[in-house]
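Task card 7
Instruction: Convert sequence to structure tokens.
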Amino acid sequence: MKKYSERARRELVSAVVLIILAIVIGIAVLAPLMPARAVTNHVVEMHEYYFLPQFTTVAPGDTVTWHNSGIAPHTATSNTTAWLEVTVTSGLDSAATVMPMTPGNYTYICSFHFGLHNSMWGAIIVSTAVPEFSSSFVVVVGMLVIALGLMMVRRKL
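Output:
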């Protein structure tokens, strides 16, 4: 004996498909209205002959600010042309900022002290490892494929 009639199963699957489609369409319509990710400022401390943290991972558009808490002036000189040389004098109020936009690894040195202290280097890793919800079309198409699959399964019940 069947627990549910054929008609009840069809109605249930149809209701589920309609709910899924409503959710997908709602996401597709509301996604462009969602606020953009906030820009984060990452701080790198310049101590006497080392950067802390030595490796800083940021998202494109985030800022990196160097604070010199040491006695001597330091630089954050890019080993590429990602930014111009940043010179930061001593004192906690002294800071300089860059905003890397292109994903990649950007190493930098203190041009004043790298030759004397090989530990005076660091790296900024610009990564898009955390994807942002930006492709409503792909989500809608994927959900439609799932809905069509459910409809095909329903016919075999």
